[in-house]
C-alpha cells in the first residue's frame, strides 16, 4: 500500500520538475504531472538505464531527464497541432 502511494507522490514530483525544466508546456495539472512522471521514468530508464539514486523504484535522475524530454515533445506536438487546425 505504501509503495503505491510513494510511487504516485514521486511521479507527481518528478513530473513537476520535468515540466519546470521543459518550460511549463504540460497540460493536465497534477494528473498530467503524474502521468508525465510515470512515462518519463519509463522513458528515462529505457534511454539512460538505471543509475543514480533510486527512490520508490524510480531511478531519479534518468526519470527527471526522461520526463523533461517527454514534456518537451508533448508541448512541441501540441503547438504543431494548434498551428495545423
TrEMBL record:
Its localization reads: Cell membrane
**Topology with regard to the membrane?**
Multi-pass membrane protein
Top-level taxon of origin = Bacteria
Taking the first listed entry, what is the main subcellular location of this protein, grouped into a coarse class?
membrane
InterPro entries registered for this protein in UniProt: Transgly_assoc
Per the UniProt record, which residue ranges are transmembrane?
Answer: 6-22, 29-48, 54-77
Q: Which GO terms describe its cellular component?
A: plasma membrane
Q: Which UniProt keywords apply?
A: Cell membrane, Membrane, Transmembrane, Transmembrane helix
The record's family statement is: Belongs to the UPF0410 family.
**Full protein name:** Membrane protein
**What organism, scientifically named, is this protein from?**
Paenibacillus illinoisensis
Amino acid at each position: 500500500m505504501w509503495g503505491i502511494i510513494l510511487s504516485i507522490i514521486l511521479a507527481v514530483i518528478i513530473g513537476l520538475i520535468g515540466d519546470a525544466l521543459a518550460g511549463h508546456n504540460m497540460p493536465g495539472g497534477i494528473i498530467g504531472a503524474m502521468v508525465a512522471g510515470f512515462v518519463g521514468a519509463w522513458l528515462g530508464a529505457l534511454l539512460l538505464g538505471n543509475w543514480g539514486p533510486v527512490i520508490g523504484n524510480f531511478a531519479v535522475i534518468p526519470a527527471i531527464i526522461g520526463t523533461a524530454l517527454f514534456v518537451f515533445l508533448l508541448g512541441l506536438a501540441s503547438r504543431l497541432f494548434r498551428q495545423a487546425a
